[in-house]
Amino acid sequence: MMANYLRLIIILMLFLAVSQLKAQRKEDIGKEREVSPQQTEIGIERSSNIFARRGNSSVGGSSNFLYTSTSKKVKKRLEINKEDYLNYKSFLEIPNTGIVKILAQSECADRKTRAQCWRTNAEIDAFAGSYSFAKRQYTFASRADFSVVDNNLEATRTEIQTIIVDLGNAPLETLTLESKGVGYLKKINPFSQVAQAQKQYNDFLKGIFFEHFNYSKSALVKLNNAYAVRSIDYAHSSAAEKENFDTIIVFKVVRLEKDGSITLLWKELSRNNSPILLNKK
Question: Do residues 186 and 169 touch, judged by C-beta distance below 8 A?
C-alpha cells in the first residue's frame, strides 16, 4: 500500500515538473521576443492531424541553447567538445554547415536519485533531446527533425514529414544531392493533401528499401557513420509558407558518449519552401 502511495507521489512530481518546464519555456519565448523580435517567430497554425503545428519559437543562426529555464547541468552537457571544434575547423568554415550536440535521456535505474533523474529527462525531452536543422535550434520532439531515443535517431514523434537514411561510412565532405542514398530523398514527392501525406508517413514508418538503402523514420546511432535526412515541415496557410521549409541535410556522428548523447557534424544540401497542406478529401 505504501509503495503504491509513493509511486503516485513520484508520478505527480514528474507531471508537475514537466508542466513547470513548459510554462517557463513559453514565458522565456515571450521575453526573447520582446528583446529581439527579429530573431523569434511564433507559429500560429493549428490542425488535428499528425502534421499539426502547435506553435514554436525559431531563433536562427545558432545551435547554442537560449532558454534561461534550462538548468546549468543540462547547459553544461550541451557544450561541444573543444577537440571537435578544432578537428573540424576547416569543414565548419564552409557555408551551411554546423556542429550540434543532442542529449539522450537517462535510464533512471537508481531509486535514490530517480525523481531527480526523471525531472532532468523531462528537461532534456523539452529542450535538449531534439533538434530542427531548418530552424537551427533545439525544440520539442513534435517540431524537430528527430530525437535521440534508446541509441536511435527517432522521427516517429514529430509532426514533420521526416525521412532518414543510413549512408554508412560515406565521406561527409563529398556528399551531394546526387550521391548514392541521397538522390532518392530528393525525388520524394511531398503531397499537398492531408490523407496522402498521412499515407506517405505510414509508408516510411514501415520503411522503404531502394537500391540497398532503407528510408524510414529511424536509424541506429553509429559512431563515424553518415546519414541523410529530408524534413518536410508542411505549411498550413499561405502566410506560413515562407516560414516552413523542406530541407535535405547530411550529417555524421563524430562523438558518441557513454550516456548515449551524440555530437553531429552537418551540412545542408537544399532548402525550399514547404508546400501548403490542404485538409481536403
Answer: no
Distant-in-sequence, close-in-space partners of 203: CB < 8 Å, separation ≥ 6: none
Which cell numbers in the block locate residue 18?
A: 514537466
**3-class secondary structure, 171:** coil
What CA–CA distances, in Å, run from 132 to 60, 75, 202? 11, 18, 21
Grid cell listed for 232 = 518536410
User: Which cell numbers hold the place of 225?
Assistant: 557513420
Q: DSSP code of 157?
A: S
Report H helices in 36-192: 72-77, 82-87, 89-92, 114-127, 183-187
Q: How far apart are CA 27 and CA 34, in angstroms?
A: 11
pTM for the complete prediction? 0.71
| CA dist., res. 214 & res. 230, Å (int) | 13
Which residue has 535505474 as its cell numbers? 109
Supply φ then ψ for residue 252, to 5 degrees.
-135, 140
List the one residue out of 28, 29, 39, 253 whose CA is nearest residue 136: 39
Residue 197 DSSP SS3: helix
Crossing angle between the packed helical segments 2-35 and 114-127, to the nearest 10 degrees? 30
pLDDT tens per residue across span 226-252: 999 999 988 876 655 567 889 999 999
